[in-house]
Design brief:
GO cellular component, one term: cytosol
Shape: globular
EC number: 1.1.1.-
Domain Saccharopine dehydrogenase NADP binding: 124-195
InterPro entries: Aminoacid_DH-like_N_sf, NAD(P)-bd_dom_sf, Sacchrp_dh_NADP-bd, Shikimate_DH-bd_N, Shikimate_DH_fam
Distance between the termini: 35 Å
Number of strands: 12
GO molecular function, one term: shikimate 3-dehydrogenase (NADP+) activity
CATH superfamily of the largest domain: NAD(P)-binding Rossmann-like Domain
Low-confidence stretches: none
Length: 284
Protein backbone atom coordinates (compact mmCIF):
# COMPACT_ATOMS: atom_id res chain seq x y z
CA UNK A 1 0.00 0.00 0.00
CA UNK A 2 1.40 3.37 -1.09
CA UNK A 3 0.37 6.55 0.71
CA UNK A 4 -0.57 9.80 -1.06
CA UNK A 5 -1.70 13.06 0.51
CA UNK A 6 -3.63 16.23 -0.19
CA UNK A 7 -2.46 19.31 1.71
CA UNK A 8 -4.78 22.28 1.97
CA UNK A 9 -7.52 24.03 3.89
CA UNK A 10 -11.26 23.24 3.85
CA UNK A 11 -10.72 19.96 2.01
CA UNK A 12 -12.92 17.60 4.05
CA UNK A 13 -15.44 17.28 1.18
CA UNK A 14 -12.80 16.53 -1.48
CA UNK A 15 -13.57 13.67 -3.87
CA UNK A 16 -9.89 13.16 -4.65
CA UNK A 17 -9.50 10.27 -2.18
CA UNK A 18 -12.37 8.42 -3.88
CA UNK A 19 -10.86 8.91 -7.35
CA UNK A 20 -7.31 7.89 -6.46
CA UNK A 21 -8.33 4.92 -4.31
CA UNK A 22 -10.57 3.68 -7.13
CA UNK A 23 -7.79 4.10 -9.69
CA UNK A 24 -5.45 2.15 -7.42
CA UNK A 25 -7.87 -0.78 -7.24
CA UNK A 26 -8.58 -0.76 -10.99
CA UNK A 27 -4.89 -0.68 -11.89
CA UNK A 28 -3.80 -3.18 -9.20
CA UNK A 29 -1.64 -0.53 -7.53
CA UNK A 30 -3.25 -0.07 -4.09
CA UNK A 31 -2.97 3.44 -2.70
CA UNK A 32 -4.23 5.18 0.40
CA UNK A 33 -5.09 8.79 -0.39
CA UNK A 34 -5.17 10.74 2.88
CA UNK A 35 -6.35 14.29 3.48
CA UNK A 36 -3.87 16.55 5.25
CA UNK A 37 -6.15 19.42 6.29
CA UNK A 38 -4.45 22.39 7.91
CA UNK A 39 -6.02 25.01 10.17
CA UNK A 40 -3.33 27.58 9.42
CA UNK A 41 -2.57 29.23 6.07
CA UNK A 42 1.00 29.95 7.16
CA UNK A 43 3.89 28.71 5.02
CA UNK A 44 5.44 27.13 8.10
CA UNK A 45 2.34 24.96 8.61
CA UNK A 46 2.61 23.69 5.05
CA UNK A 47 6.33 22.99 5.37
CA UNK A 48 5.88 21.11 8.63
CA UNK A 49 3.14 18.88 7.20
CA UNK A 50 5.14 18.27 4.02
CA UNK A 51 8.16 17.20 6.05
CA UNK A 52 5.96 14.98 8.21
CA UNK A 53 4.43 12.97 5.36
CA UNK A 54 7.81 12.56 3.66
CA UNK A 55 9.18 11.13 6.90
CA UNK A 56 6.20 8.73 7.00
CA UNK A 57 7.08 7.36 3.57
CA UNK A 58 4.41 9.00 1.41
CA UNK A 59 5.17 8.77 -2.34
CA UNK A 60 3.68 12.18 -3.07
CA UNK A 61 0.99 14.72 -2.33
CA UNK A 62 -1.44 16.97 -4.05
CA UNK A 63 -1.52 20.60 -2.96
CA UNK A 64 -4.49 22.93 -2.98
CA UNK A 65 -5.57 26.34 -1.67
CA UNK A 66 -3.80 28.28 -0.28
CA UNK A 67 -0.45 26.55 -0.85
CA UNK A 68 -0.16 26.04 -4.64
CA UNK A 69 2.37 28.82 -5.12
CA UNK A 70 4.36 28.48 -1.89
CA UNK A 71 4.76 24.75 -2.58
CA UNK A 72 6.98 25.56 -5.55
CA UNK A 73 9.65 26.81 -3.16
CA UNK A 74 9.81 23.38 -1.53
CA UNK A 75 10.59 21.58 -4.80
CA UNK A 76 14.04 20.49 -5.94
CA UNK A 77 12.86 20.11 -9.55
CA UNK A 78 9.92 21.68 -11.39
CA UNK A 79 8.18 20.60 -14.59
CA UNK A 80 7.64 22.82 -17.62
CA UNK A 81 4.03 23.31 -16.54
CA UNK A 82 5.12 24.67 -13.16
CA UNK A 83 7.64 26.98 -14.78
CA UNK A 84 4.90 28.40 -16.98
CA UNK A 85 2.10 28.66 -14.44
CA UNK A 86 4.16 29.55 -11.38
CA UNK A 87 2.35 27.15 -9.07
CA UNK A 88 2.09 23.43 -8.35
CA UNK A 89 -0.68 21.10 -7.25
CA UNK A 90 1.28 17.83 -7.39
CA UNK A 91 4.51 16.93 -5.59
CA UNK A 92 6.30 13.63 -6.22
CA UNK A 93 8.82 12.33 -3.67
CA UNK A 94 11.42 10.25 -5.49
CA UNK A 95 15.12 9.51 -5.08
CA UNK A 96 15.36 11.90 -2.16
CA UNK A 97 13.98 14.82 -4.20
CA UNK A 98 10.70 16.71 -4.39
CA UNK A 99 9.50 17.13 -7.96
CA UNK A 100 6.70 19.59 -8.76
CA UNK A 101 4.03 19.32 -11.46
CA UNK A 102 0.85 21.20 -12.34
CA UNK A 103 -1.91 18.81 -13.34
CA UNK A 104 -4.51 21.60 -13.36
CA UNK A 105 -2.65 22.73 -16.49
CA UNK A 106 -2.32 19.29 -18.09
CA UNK A 107 -5.72 18.12 -16.84
CA UNK A 108 -7.50 21.08 -18.40
CA UNK A 109 -5.81 20.39 -21.73
CA UNK A 110 -6.71 16.70 -21.53
CA UNK A 111 -10.33 17.41 -20.59
CA UNK A 112 -10.75 20.08 -23.26
CA UNK A 113 -9.46 17.78 -26.00
CA UNK A 114 -11.60 14.88 -24.76
CA UNK A 115 -14.72 17.03 -25.08
CA UNK A 116 -13.91 19.28 -28.02
CA UNK A 117 -11.27 17.38 -29.99
CA UNK A 118 -9.25 19.60 -32.30
CA UNK A 119 -11.51 22.64 -31.94
CA UNK A 120 -9.23 25.68 -31.51
CA UNK A 121 -10.05 27.74 -28.45
CA UNK A 122 -9.77 30.97 -30.48
CA UNK A 123 -10.52 34.22 -28.67
CA UNK A 124 -11.47 33.60 -25.05
CA UNK A 125 -12.97 35.59 -22.19
CA UNK A 126 -11.88 34.26 -18.78
CA UNK A 127 -13.47 35.49 -15.56
CA UNK A 128 -11.24 34.84 -12.56
CA UNK A 129 -7.44 35.05 -12.58
CA UNK A 130 -6.38 33.39 -9.34
CA UNK A 131 -5.46 29.83 -8.42
CA UNK A 132 -6.82 27.49 -11.06
CA UNK A 133 -7.33 30.45 -13.40
CA UNK A 134 -3.58 30.75 -13.95
CA UNK A 135 -3.27 27.09 -14.94
CA UNK A 136 -6.29 27.27 -17.23
CA UNK A 137 -5.03 30.48 -18.84
CA UNK A 138 -1.76 28.88 -19.89
CA UNK A 139 -3.58 25.71 -20.89
CA UNK A 140 -5.86 27.67 -23.19
CA UNK A 141 -2.95 28.64 -25.41
CA UNK A 142 -2.00 24.97 -25.68
CA UNK A 143 -5.43 24.24 -27.21
CA UNK A 144 -5.39 27.02 -29.76
CA UNK A 145 -6.28 30.23 -27.96
CA UNK A 146 -5.29 33.24 -30.05
CA UNK A 147 -6.18 35.95 -27.54
CA UNK A 148 -7.28 35.94 -23.91
CA UNK A 149 -9.37 38.63 -22.24
CA UNK A 150 -9.11 38.48 -18.44
CA UNK A 151 -11.55 39.91 -15.91
CA UNK A 152 -11.10 39.75 -12.15
CA UNK A 153 -12.19 41.83 -9.18
CA UNK A 154 -8.52 41.69 -8.17
CA UNK A 155 -7.20 43.90 -10.95
CA UNK A 156 -3.59 43.52 -9.84
CA UNK A 157 -3.86 39.73 -10.03
CA UNK A 158 -5.38 39.92 -13.51
CA UNK A 159 -2.64 42.27 -14.68
CA UNK A 160 0.07 40.03 -13.26
CA UNK A 161 -1.36 37.04 -15.12
CA UNK A 162 -1.62 38.99 -18.37
CA UNK A 163 1.99 40.14 -18.02
CA UNK A 164 3.15 36.54 -17.46
CA UNK A 165 1.31 35.37 -20.57
CA UNK A 166 2.50 38.25 -22.74
CA UNK A 167 6.09 37.73 -21.56
CA UNK A 168 6.26 34.36 -23.32
CA UNK A 169 4.63 35.54 -26.53
CA UNK A 170 0.93 35.01 -25.87
CA UNK A 171 -1.68 37.75 -26.25
CA UNK A 172 -3.60 38.64 -23.10
CA UNK A 173 -5.54 41.76 -22.10
CA UNK A 174 -7.22 42.77 -18.84
CA UNK A 175 -10.77 44.04 -19.31
CA UNK A 176 -12.83 46.18 -16.95
CA UNK A 177 -15.96 44.73 -15.36
CA UNK A 178 -18.27 47.05 -17.30
CA UNK A 179 -16.76 45.82 -20.60
CA UNK A 180 -17.17 42.10 -19.93
CA UNK A 181 -20.56 41.61 -21.59
CA UNK A 182 -19.49 43.41 -24.75
CA UNK A 183 -16.26 41.39 -24.94
CA UNK A 184 -18.23 38.17 -24.39
CA UNK A 185 -20.07 38.76 -27.65
CA UNK A 186 -16.78 39.00 -29.55
CA UNK A 187 -15.11 35.76 -28.43
CA UNK A 188 -15.22 32.07 -29.28
CA UNK A 189 -15.00 30.72 -25.75
CA UNK A 190 -16.24 31.65 -22.27
CA UNK A 191 -14.43 30.52 -19.12
CA UNK A 192 -15.39 30.82 -15.46
CA UNK A 193 -12.55 30.38 -12.96
CA UNK A 194 -14.30 32.12 -10.07
CA UNK A 195 -16.09 30.32 -7.19
CA UNK A 196 -19.42 31.76 -8.34
CA UNK A 197 -21.76 28.89 -9.13
CA UNK A 198 -20.57 26.63 -6.31
CA UNK A 199 -23.17 25.33 -3.86
CA UNK A 200 -21.83 27.75 -1.26
CA UNK A 201 -21.65 30.72 -3.64
CA UNK A 202 -24.52 30.23 -6.11
CA UNK A 203 -25.17 32.38 -9.16
CA UNK A 204 -23.69 33.16 -12.55
CA UNK A 205 -20.61 35.39 -12.91
CA UNK A 206 -21.77 36.42 -16.39
CA UNK A 207 -25.10 37.98 -17.36
CA UNK A 208 -27.39 35.57 -19.19
CA UNK A 209 -27.65 38.08 -22.03
CA UNK A 210 -23.89 37.66 -22.69
CA UNK A 211 -24.28 34.05 -23.81
CA UNK A 212 -24.84 33.37 -27.49
CA UNK A 213 -22.68 33.40 -30.59
CA UNK A 214 -19.70 31.72 -28.93
CA UNK A 215 -18.58 28.15 -29.70
CA UNK A 216 -17.77 26.66 -26.30
CA UNK A 217 -17.68 27.26 -22.55
CA UNK A 218 -15.81 25.91 -19.52
CA UNK A 219 -16.60 26.26 -15.82
CA UNK A 220 -13.98 25.26 -13.23
CA UNK A 221 -16.71 24.76 -10.60
CA UNK A 222 -17.81 21.13 -10.37
CA UNK A 223 -20.08 21.03 -7.32
CA UNK A 224 -22.65 21.13 -8.82
CA UNK A 225 -21.55 20.00 -12.28
CA UNK A 226 -24.45 21.75 -14.00
CA UNK A 227 -23.74 25.29 -12.85
CA UNK A 228 -25.85 28.28 -13.83
CA UNK A 229 -22.96 29.34 -16.07
CA UNK A 230 -22.97 26.04 -17.98
CA UNK A 231 -26.76 25.91 -18.12
CA UNK A 232 -26.79 29.33 -19.78
CA UNK A 233 -24.04 28.24 -22.17
CA UNK A 234 -25.89 25.04 -23.05
CA UNK A 235 -29.12 26.95 -23.61
CA UNK A 236 -27.25 29.23 -26.04
CA UNK A 237 -26.00 26.22 -28.00
CA UNK A 238 -22.37 26.22 -26.85
CA UNK A 239 -20.30 23.06 -26.49
CA UNK A 240 -19.48 22.29 -22.86
CA UNK A 241 -16.35 21.43 -20.85
CA UNK A 242 -17.24 20.98 -17.19
CA UNK A 243 -15.39 21.44 -13.94
CA UNK A 244 -15.75 17.71 -13.38
CA UNK A 245 -13.70 17.16 -16.54
CA UNK A 246 -10.89 19.21 -14.98
CA UNK A 247 -11.19 17.39 -11.65
CA UNK A 248 -11.17 13.97 -13.32
CA UNK A 249 -8.31 14.48 -15.75
CA UNK A 250 -6.04 16.37 -13.36
CA UNK A 251 -6.60 13.45 -11.00
CA UNK A 252 -5.64 10.93 -13.67
CA UNK A 253 -2.50 12.90 -14.48
CA UNK A 254 -1.55 13.08 -10.79
CA UNK A 255 -2.16 9.34 -10.29
CA UNK A 256 0.12 8.55 -13.24
CA UNK A 257 2.83 10.82 -11.79
CA UNK A 258 2.59 9.30 -8.31
CA UNK A 259 2.50 5.65 -9.39
CA UNK A 260 4.13 5.52 -12.83
CA UNK A 261 1.05 3.58 -13.99
CA UNK A 262 -0.61 4.90 -17.18
CA UNK A 263 -4.39 5.10 -17.45
CA UNK A 264 -4.94 4.84 -21.20
CA UNK A 265 -8.57 3.73 -21.46
CA UNK A 266 -10.36 6.27 -19.29
CA UNK A 267 -13.93 5.41 -20.35
CA UNK A 268 -14.51 2.53 -17.89
CA UNK A 269 -12.88 4.51 -15.09
CA UNK A 270 -15.07 7.52 -15.77
CA UNK A 271 -18.21 5.38 -16.02
CA UNK A 272 -17.53 3.55 -12.78
CA UNK A 273 -16.70 6.74 -10.87
CA UNK A 274 -19.84 8.49 -12.12
CA UNK A 275 -22.03 5.54 -11.17
CA UNK A 276 -20.49 4.86 -7.77
CA UNK A 277 -20.50 8.48 -6.63
CA UNK A 278 -23.66 9.60 -8.43
CA UNK A 279 -21.87 12.18 -10.55
CA UNK A 280 -24.74 13.16 -12.83
CA UNK A 281 -24.99 15.89 -15.46
CA UNK A 282 -27.90 16.77 -17.69
CA UNK A 283 -25.61 18.72 -20.04
CA UNK A 284 -22.79 16.29 -20.91
Amino acid sequence: MQHIGLIGQNISASRSPSLHNMLGKLKSFPVSYELQELDSPEVSAFQERLSSIIDKGFIGTNVTFPFKQVAVDSADEVSDSVQKVGSTNTLLFKDGKIRAFNTDFTGFIRGYRKRLGDLSAGKVLMIGAGGVGRAVAFGLFEVGATELFISDLNTAGAQALAQSLNAIGYKATVVAKDSVEAIAKQVDGLVNCTPVGHYKTPGNPLAASAFGGQKWAFDAVYTPIDTEFLKAANHAGLKIVSGFDLFFYQGLDAFEIFTGVEVQDVTPVLKQFREKYDVVSTLI
